[in-house]
Amino acid sequence: DTGVSQDPRHKITKRGQNVTFRCDPISEHNRLYWYRQTLGQGPEFLTYFQNEAQLEKSRLLSDRFSAERPKGSFSTLEIQRTEQGDSAMYLCASSLVGTRGSYNEQFFGPGTRLTVL
Amino acid sequence: AQKITQTQPGMFVQEKEAVTLDCTYDTSDPSYGLFWYKQPSSGEMIFLIYQGSYDQQNATEGRYSLNFQKARKSANLVISASQLGDSAMYFCAMREGPNNAGNMLTFGGGTRLMVKP
Predict the structure, then answer these.
(1) Over chain B (117 residues), what is each successive 10-residue block's mean pLDDT?
(2) Cα-based angle B74, B76, B79 (whole degrees, multiple of 5)
(3) Distance from C-alpha of B26 to C-alpha of B111, rounded to nearest angstrom
(4) Which residues of A touch B42 (CB under 8 A)?
């Protein structure tokens, strides 16, 4: 399977605990995005990377959130001191930016569903 | 103001008939792209179709076509010959800036399509 993969698919945690999610993009893709989707809503942008550089962060990404893409391949999203409001689906997407003639569509992974009790 | 508006929370369509899902957008950037994604109950976002702001013709991909009316800032998705497998959430999204900037997507609230046998 050469699509975007995310791990774990489901995570249940207690309020106050730290959680970390992993995303493996499509191998040749240079851009990686994180989105959050709450029930019944469209995805909301959190942050994105160009290779290993984090280029933009949404104001939704509070100080408790941190994302990394250390070698420009996989990425991790960590949430510290989780709150019940963090319960959501966390989606990762990747794209290949810079290819002439391409419209650089983003390919999404299956998501990690986080439940904070 | 909302950047992407989908005014139909839910739609029913009879199998084999065509259906139009509405999307209006708001941007002052002359260069932008409009995307439609399908999200089945499994949760994965599936890319359907793309329309660039400078494209002269409406985009088509198989049974999907995009009715792009630039002056009205609308980008409606038309699905012809609906199938039971088309039952899902559909999201309209916009990327502001040129293709090679690879900026993040802004999503609408989605429309749930239900295909009746």
Answers:
(1) 90 97 96 95 92 93 96 97 97 88 90 97
(2) 170
(3) 18
(4) 110
Token couple for A84 = 């019940």
Count of helix runs (H) and strand runs (E) in chain B: 0, 12
Question: Which structure tokens are listed for B47?
Answer: 């890319």
Q: Give the Cα separation of A67 and B106 in Å (integer).
A: 20
Closest-CA distance of chain B to residue A70, Å = 20
Chain A residues in contact with B106 (beta carbon < 8 A): 45
Q: Quick one: chain A helix, strand, coil %, rounded to 5?
A: 5, 50, 50
Q: Is B32 on the interface with A (CB under 8 A)?
A: no
Residue A17 distance to chain B (closest CA, Å): 25
Q: Are B68 and B34 in contact (CB under 8 A)?
A: yes
- Check CB contact of B42 with chain A, cutoff 8 Å: yes
Residues whose CB is less than 8 angstroms from the CB of residue A97 and which lie 6 or more positions away in sequence, other chains included: A30, A31, A50, A104, B99, B100, B101, B102
**Partner residue facing B105 (CB), from A45, A50, A110:** A45
User: pLDDT tens across A28-87, in order?
Assistant: 898 999 999 999 899 999 999 998 898 888 888 889 999 999 888 999 999 999 999 999
- In DSSP terms, which residues pair with A45 in a beta bridge? A35
d(CA B45, CA B79): 17
